[in-house]
Write a structure and sequence with these properties.
Rossmann fold; six-stranded mixed beta sheet; 26 strands; binds alpha-D-glucopyranose; Immunoglobulin-like; five-stranded parallel beta sheet
Length: about 750
């Protein structure tokens, strides 16, 4: 590492001197780190500094529109590229790293990033599914496994977690997040960041995380990806920003800016990077654009050309230009013409170099290049079991009339029908990294492995996911007639959610509903299994079928996980984190809505409702059944008056009144009956996932303080206001016990 070795000695001396006066370990670490960063910065030319601010994609995989630009490899050799994405495997990353270290003047190590969204090689349930587990420990473990595998394969940085709140299931990227609730989304963001980053970024089995897409990307008008976002500052700060703030508080190493504009200013040039992220939240990490989102300031109509785009993005505070070739093309001239101060360049390069030091790349650029670890860690049995466990916990039981589930493993004849039954690809979902269908267990295989040797498993695909080919109906009806039970497996392809995959109609695609109706006519008991990446509008199915399991896209171990639930080896405990509408026309529909002056009421004409659809969602936020039943009783508050400085103690008794042991997510909501601005009809403030044996009763306790009742008032001050409140404790946002209290000064 040429000059940098000399530099190391200099850094050591400078650091020794500067530590003499410092007060504590943390400060010493920070001082040392800043000295190292400054020392490297001081040796860099302008071209090398600007090079660090550019990231280009490897040729193997593009995750956005192709942008003409320099060959990444040449730029690496010339020390004019700081980072690459979509470079996979120890061999390839080592090769690129060697070019940077041995061929460029300073030998500054490269930073490799990749979309490790729900697993690297062992693919876990899509994030929306994982969120339905409400199991923060398991969600953290999922990210931990992803980090272990990605770091073993040469990755330093994942572009995850996606923490965008989504209230519109037409938006394909709802699949990548934690649903519609801000409180739950904030906790899940923190869990995922802890899983990815661990306690030490320089460890060879942790990776830098990236809170994205800052901000409010999920509020795209019409649920159309990349579309306009326009909202009040109050909605922005109360609904969309908290998961990003939670990410900053959790120590996330990087942020990624969103494609969308927010109230007229595109996110990649929006002052909220500085006045909120940097100034209010004191974020010291690195900010990367999304794929060419700096260049897209031009089509946004916010920049006239690349020069203006670069000036505006730099002023906004974007440190690194992902696959945009804007910074690399125009910053040098802008500097020479005095249109951009070198101090802004230095600030950005410091943020980038600091991350590389934190990752240990200057100490050992090959720290993440270990072929043996790569071979041992990817797709090992422990990781598969973790994916299977996460899969089980992500499943939501939507209906179980006649208690058809769980099925017996010795059922005589089982007909498995549908386009997603014998499919090991779509179960991986979108953003599947290096996941492969060859490694995945599909549902038909999972069922065949689970049932007894006496069970006959019949199978027909029935139809495709899309298209109007009904030729498979006849054989499907025939095997249904021969079966004791039909397992009907329908849903979406992996390509129907994720980036640039919004849908204008969120019903089952193709002729799948027609197939369901044909099988329904046979009169056989049907278990409908949904495999999808968003809430679906399935009113006919919900009205006519007695048994529906929401199995999402559960990843490499999907078939085993679903079979575990189907045959009762695991009692489903999932709860929806995004509302299922009755029709697409009801969207947006979410639980924490405002009441309006004429709240929906069937018996009254002049109220806020549709004349052609019943009021309310098909399945509400927080909803999910179990094979057992739970009885909620005895909701008690320590007082019916809460002083601002006090804590309200809330308790209730929960009984497992059924025959199966199980886990129940007990949810605590509050309702603020009136305020200086209108308030949501209810808001999730806490939850506990409780294990209960059949027949067991436990007391569940919560604490509530006035701080949890704060909101942005009519002066945009974040405060609680005295007044009437209700506490709701229940099994979903639609079924709960309720008690009232007053908040007083
Ligand atoms: C994509 C996505 C972003 C992803 C990035 C790199 O356009 O918007 O989420 O991390 O590009 O693949």
């Amino acid at each position: 590492m040429k000059l940098l070795n000399l530099l190391k000695a200099a850094i050591l001396i400078v650091t020794m001197l500067s530590c003499i006066r410092s007060k504590n370990d943390r400060e010493i670490v920070d001082i040392v780190l800043e000295r190292k960063v400054d020392s490297v910065l001081s040796m860099m030319t302008l071209e090398e500094k600007i090079g660090q601010m550019s990231q280009l994609s490897g040729l193997g995989e593009f995750t956005g529109p192709l942008i003409a630009g320099d060959s990444a490899i040449e730029a690496v050799k010339q020390g004019k590229l700081g980072s690459m994405l979509n470079i996979n495997g120890v061999a390839y990353t080592r090769q690129i790293q060697e070019m940077a270290l041995l061929e460029s003047r300073l030998g500054i190590p490269m930073l490799f990033g990749y979309d490790v969204i729900h697993g690297y090689k062992t693919i876990f349930p899509v994030p929306l599914a994982e969120a339905c587990s409400w199991d923060l420990e398991s969600i953290e473990k999922s990210a931990r496994v992803a980090a272990i595998e990605a770091s073993a394969a040469g990755q330093h940085w994942t572009f995850a977690p996606m923490v965008d709140i989504a209230r519109d299931p037409r938006w394909g990227r709802i699949m990548e997040g934690a649903g519609e609730d801000t409180y739950l989304g904030s906790l899940i963001a923190r869990a995922r960041i802890r899983g990815f980053q661990g306690d030490d970024l320089s460890s060879s089995n942790t990776i830098a995380a990236c809170a994205k897409h800052y901000a409010a990307y999920g509020a795209a008008e019409g649920g159309r990806d990349y579309n306009t976002v326009d909202m009040s500052e109050r909605t922005l700060r109360e609904i969309y920003l908290p998961p990003f703030k939670a990410s900053a508080n959790a120590g996330v190493a990087t942020f990624m800016t969103a494609f969308n504009e927010i109230n007229g200013i595109p996110a990649s040039a929006n002052p909220m990077m500085r006045f909120i992220l940097r100034d209010e939240w004191n974020f010291k990490g690195m900010i990367v654009s999304d794929w060419n989102s700096i260049g897209e300031l031009i089509p946004h109509g916010f920049a006239a050309n690349k020069n203006e785009a670069a000036i505006l993005a730099m002023r906004g505070g974007v440190d690194m230009d992902m696959q945009g070739n804007v910074y690399s093309k125009v910053l040098l001239n802008l500097l020479k013409n005095g249109e951009i101060p070198e101090s802004q360049i230095d600030e950005a390069v410091r943020n980038i170099l600091r991350l590389k030091f934190q990752l240990g790349l200057f100490d050992d650029p090959y720290r993440y290049c270990n072929e043996q670890r790569e071979a041992e860690m990817l797709l090992n049995a422990i990781h598969r079991e973790a994916a299977r466990d996460m899969g089980r916990k992500s499943i939501v039981l939507l209906k179980n009339g006649n208690r058809l589930l769980p099925l017996s493993k010795s059922v005589r004849t089982l007909a498995v029908i549908g386009p997603l039954a014998d499919d090991a690809d779509n179960i991986l979902g979108g953003w599947r990294a290096l996941g492969s269908s060859e490694d995945a267990v599909n549902l038909l295989s999972g069922i065949r492995e689970a049932v007894s040797s006496h069970t006959r498993v019949l199978y027909e695909k029935g139809c495709d996911i899309e298209g109007d080919d009904r030729s498979g109906f006849k054989n499907s009806i025939a095997i249904a007639r021969r079966a004791d039970v039909v397992v009907l497996v329908v849903g979406e392809s992996a390509a129907m959610t994720g980036e640039a995959h919004s849908r204008s109609d969120i019903g089952l695609p193709g002729v799948q509903l027609e197939l369901i109706k044909e099988i329904y006519k046979t009169g056989k008991p049907i278990v409908l299994i949904l495999m999808n990446g968003r809430p679906l509008a399935i009113p006919w199915e919900a009205e006519h079928l007695t048994t529906i399991l929401e199995a999402w896209q559960l990843g490499t171990e999907a078939g085993h996980a679903i079979a575990d639930v189907l045959f009762g080896d695991y009692n489903p405990s999932g709860k929806l984190v995004a509302t299922f509408p009755r029709t697409t026309g009801q969207v947006p529909i979410y639980y924490n809505h405002k009441n309006t002056g004429r709240p929906a009421e069937n018996s009254l004409r002049f109220t806020s409702k549709y004349i052609d659809t019943p009021i309310g969602p098909l399945f509400p936020f927080g909803y999910g059944l179990s094979y057992t039943t739970y009885f909620y009783t005895g909701l008690t508050l320590s007082s019916d008056v809460l002083h601002m400085s006090d804590t309200l103690k809330i308790s209730m008794q929960l009984t497992n009144t059924g025959k199966f042991d199980g886990e129940e997510v007990v949810q605590l909501y509050i309702k603020d009956h009136f305020g200086s601005v209108t308030r949501p009809v209810m808001e999730l403030k806490d939850f506990k996932k409780i294990k209960l044996a059949a027949g067991e009763t436990v007391t569940v306790n919560f604490l509530l303080t006035s701080g949890q009742l704060a909101f942005y008032n009519n002066h945009m001050q974040y405060k609680a206001e005295p007044g009437d409140f209700s506490v709701m404790v229940g099994t979903s946002s639609a079924e709960y016990l309720e008690e009232d209290f007053k908040l007083v000064w």
